[in-house]
Design goal:
Chain B: Belongs to the transketolase family. Chain B: Its cofactor is thiamine diphosphate. Chain B: Keywords: Thiamine pyrophosphate. Chain B: This is Transketolase family protein. The complex is a heterodimer of chains A (309) and B (317). Chain A is α/β, with parallel strands linked by helices. Chain A has one domain: Thiamin diphosphate (ThDP)-binding fold, Pyr/PP domains (Rossmann fold, 3-Layer(aba) Sandwich), CATH 3.40.50.970. Chain A has eleven helices and seven strands. In chain A, the strands form two sheets. Chain A has a five-stranded parallel sheet, sandwiched between helices. The N and C termini of chain A lie close together (7 Å). With 317 residues, chain B is α/β, with parallel strands linked by helices. Helix content of chain B is 40%, strand content 20%. Chain B has a seven-stranded mixed sheet, with helices on both faces. In chain B, strands 9-11-10-13-14 form a five-stranded mixed sheet, with helices on both faces. In chain B, β13, α11 and β14 form a beta-alpha-beta unit. Chain B is globular, with a radius of gyration of 19 Å. In chain B, 62% of the residues are buried. The chains are: A alpha/beta (309), B alpha/beta (317). At the A-B interface, α6 and α7 of A face α4 and α6 of B.
């Protein structure tokens, strides 16, 4: 297995990521295939992590896998290693912290910490807390999240610091759609537009599900595109957030729209539980782990690509 | 006893404003945030001199705390300020998760703390903020006593790396600490030596404790007065050293006796040196409208209340 990991790290080193502003790199078929492999492996990681401790949030994690892989392996300009200030690189903030499994897997496989550490997810004395935190010093995480609705404010603060520092890099954030029911988001949405925080790209995971059921039933969100537009954001939609090329195109388009006086919002339509047939189109797997048989079925639908941790 | 001279009444919030003016000139990493209360927080000069380093957030305190947390990522030292009620209770979870648990170097600077906010009444007064903030792991809690000390504390917290709650007030009160006195976080200040009783006071109650000590001296009672400007971390060494000498203690604060300075002292004493203690504080109540002086009198937060508490605790020795 360690050989597979070495091979994987070698592949990462040879991948030319980190495109600069305004220059859109054309993806080749082999590039896409390499990213698809990471997506499938990430799904395996998510499933195995939550299964092992019989807790955690697979549904949203699986739905956002293409987004995370695109962001970290194709879109963001990142430095070697990790420091809290993140000067001279793009930053990402996860607001809906419960989808920590996908975040941890992508961070580990990007090289922020050893992939073997995914074994410690939610265990005592672990850096991989149930929800992401800086408290245990996990590289790649810059703020605690989990109590919902706080991430956009933090992302705005980091974006303002970049402007003050003359750092032209971007700040990305991800939010659940149900999370938008928290009022603090709308304070942040109003502020970002009113103050032209145009180095910020906030993505909404529009999977239409939350713990108690469909968002349309729990508390309808209405037309999010119109809401963000009315607040003064530049809004674009990704119709299929589980289509890798579409996600990459959408993120590239969002990057092109930064620096023009408006914060950029991506409404990304995803399917909660994507990649595992019995987890899709339901809120049932929001915060539930598969049992042994279910894991076997789910893993069979996502055959090993880069090597399990 | 040593005489303390009021150099001229001034409000502690103006001490904060003066500290911010100085930080604006001396520390380029300091940035200021405010939630639509610039005039009340006295930061107009900082804003005029550093417009790029000021963020007017509007009436959105939760967003302000999150933005402050984000600004630290990039090396800024954010001073987020509003009324104490809106800087603590209203945004407790934002402070807890995005600032305290995340270990962010944010300075939460809260004016109009306590009952001396006065006429606006209980919706705007807060008597629970010390308790709320001191319970957060890693949070430093400071309640300076006058204009000079608030200015010095404002400067000192910029040089300290970690989340801080700095609490000050609205009314003009005696300004009696030396203008050049350095502020040392966590280091209590012995203001008057005494042998019969220890008075441990914080914030506006420090001046009241000095008046009380003078009146008690006239009755033949020797009161030691210590200014506990830092409630967390508490200077336990100074507290225990004094109490071991006097054998009884009165705590005095403009705060609920549940969760305030008095409880921190009681815990220290119970663990190390059980001692009779009386609490000058509000007694699990909301405030109301009135002038600051009327409210301090009605809720037992002045020199008179401290003197009565001393007489009571002396009988329990």
């Amino acid at each position: 297995m360690s050989q597979l990991i070495k091979y994987y790290n070698y592949r990462l080193d040879t991948q030319k990521i980190a495109p600069t502003f305004g220059i859109i790199k054309k993806m080749t078929m082999s590039d896409i295939k390499a990213l698809e492999d990471i997506v499938v492996q990430t799904r395996r990681d998510i499933l195995r992590m939550v299964h092992k401790v019989n807790s955690g949030h697979p549904g949203g994690s699986l739905g956002c896998t293409e987004f995370f892989v695109s962001l970290y392996h194709e879109i963001m300009e990142l430095k070697e290693g990790f420091d809290m200030d993140g000067a001279g690189e793009d930053l990402f903030f996860l607001s809906n912290g419960h989808i920590s499994p996908v975040f941890y897997s992508v961070l580990a496989r990007k090289g922020y910490f050893p992939v073997e550490e995914l074994n410690t997810f939610r265990l005592i004395d672990s850096r991989l807390q149930g929800h992401p935190t800086t408290h245990e010093g996990l590289p790649g995480v810059r703020v605690a999240s989990g109590s919902l609705g706080q991430g956009m404010s933090v992302a705005i603060g980091a974006a303002l610091a970049k402007k003050l520092n003359g750092d032209g890099h971007l700040v990305y954030s991800l939010h659940g759609d149900g999370e938008l029911q928290e009022g603090q988001n709308w304070e942040a949405i109003m502020y970002a537009a009113g103050n032209k925080v145009d180095n910020l790209i906030s993505t909404i995971d529009r999977n239409g599900q939350q713990i108690d059921g469909p968002t349309a039933e729990v508390l309808p969100l209405g037309n999010l595109n119109e809401k963000f537009t009315a607040f003064g954001w530049d809004v674009l939609e990704i119709q299929d957030g589980n289509n890798l090329e579409e996600v990459i195109d959408g993120l590239q388009e969002a990057k092109k729209r930064t620096g023009k006086g408006k914060p950029v919002c991506i409404i990304m339509n995803t399917i909660m539980g994507h990649g595992v047939d019995f987890m899709m189109h339901t809120h049932a797997w929001h915060g539930k782990a598969p049992n042994d048989d279910q894991l076997e079925t789910a893993l069979a639908q996502n055959p090993e690509t880069l090597g399990d941790y | 006893m040593k005489k303390y001279i009021d150099q001229g009444k001034n409000d502690t919030r103006s001490g904060y404003g003066a500290g911010m003016t100085e930080l604006g000139r001396s520390n380029p990493n300091v940035v200021a945030l405010c939630a639509d209360l610039v005039g009340s927080l006295k930061i107009e000069t900082f804003i005029a001199e550093n417009p790029d380093r000021f963020f007017q957030i509007g009436i959105a305190e939760a967003n302000m705390m999150g933005i402050a947390a984000g600004l630290t990522i990039g090396g800024k030292i954010p001073f987020a300020s509003t009324f104490a009620n809106f800087a603590t209770g209203r945004v407790y979870d934002q402070i807890r998760q995005s600032i305290a648990y995340s270990g962010k170097n944010v300075k939460i600077c809260a004016s109009h703390a306590g009952i001396t906010l006065g006429e606006d009444g209980a919706t705007h007064q807060i008597l629970e903020d010390i308790g709320l903030m001191k319970m957060l792991p890693g949070m430093t809690v400071i309640n300076p006593c006058d204009y000079n000390q608030t200015k010095a504390a404002t400067l000192a917290i910029a040089d300290y790396n970690g989340p801080v709650y700095l609490r000050f007030g609205r009314p003009k009160v005696a300004n009696f600490t030396p203008a050049d006195q350095k502020f040392e976080i966590g280091k209590a200040l012995l203001l008057n030596e005494g042998t019969d009783v220890t008075i441990l006071a914080t914030g506006h109650l420090v001046w009241q404790a000095l008046i009380a000590a003078e009146n008690l001296e006239n009755q033949g009672i020797s009161a030691e007065v210590i200014n506990i400007h830092t409630i967390k971390p508490l200077d336990e060494e100074a507290v225990l050293k004094s109490v071991k000498k006097t054998g009884c203690v009165v705590s005095a604060e403009e705060h609920n006796y549940l969760g305030g300075l008095g409880e921190s002292i009681a815990r220290t004493l119970a663990s190390n040196y059980p001692t009779p203690q009386e609490f000058v504080a509000t007694k699990d109540t909301f405030g109301e409208s009135g002038t600051p002086d009327q409210l301090m009198d009605k809720y037992g937060l002045n020199n008179k209340a401290i003197e009565e508490a001393v007489l009571k605790v002396l009988k329990r020795k």
